[in-house]
Design brief:
This protein has one domain. 23% of the residues lie in helices and 42% in strands. It has 4 helices and 10 strands, in the order ββαβααβββαββββ. The strands form 3 sheets. The protein has a 5-stranded mixed β-sheet with strand order 4-2-3-1-10. The protein has a 3-stranded antiparallel β-sheet with strand order 6-5-7, covered by helices on one side. A two-stranded antiparallel sheet has the order 8-9.
Length: 158
């Protein structure tokens, strides 16, 4: 039985005024349905290069994603003093996802939901969002710190 997996590892470091860079890395195989997707995000780092390296490292470290999916992790976006959000379809066999970077967490979340729903018109939820600076990571609208998130684990495709 084929399964869809979307895995996400995010973390926030202690905010510091000089640390205002973030990045998002994705490992997207040819078939998300068969091999899932790996995501890693990082923010509050001192340079774009440090943020990119950390996002890539976190993406590749998601143990629940298959090794061949983790090997595909690449940085898709770096940002400065902004917010990132990731959304996915949590339903059985859900394989839709979206992400966005914006000036506020709320705007990033809305854009990520729209991106997810562009590819799947039924149902998407925010998996995580976070911002550079003194804002924290949010999971489904609730603030969390140093959170590891995984979705779509063992969701059977019909």
């Amino acid at each position: 039985m084929r399964r869809a997996h979307i895995f996400l590892l995010v973390a926030t470091l202690t905010p510091h005024p000089a640390c205002a860079f973030g990045a998002l890395a994705l490992g997207v195989p040819p078939s998300v349905r068969d091999d899932g997707i790996a995501m890693g995000a990082a923010w509050n780092l001192p340079t774009p290069e440090a943020a990119a390296a950390e996002a890539r490292r976190r993406c590749a470290a998601v143990e629940l994603a298959p090794p061949k999916t983790r090997a595909l992790c690449e940085v898709v976006r770096t940002f400065e003093r902004q917010c990132v959000a990731i959304a996915s379809d949590p339903g059985p066999g859900g394989q839709q996802w979206g992400w966005a970077v914006a000036d506020t967490a709320e705007d990033a979340e809305q854009r990520a939901l729209r991106s997810c729903k562009t590819s799947h018109l039924e149902f998407c939820l925010i998996d995580a969002s976070g911002c550079d600076g003194p804002q924290s990571v949010r999971k489904n609208g609730v603030s969390v710190e140093n959170e590891t998130l995984s979705n779509k684990e063992d969701d059977e495709l019909r």
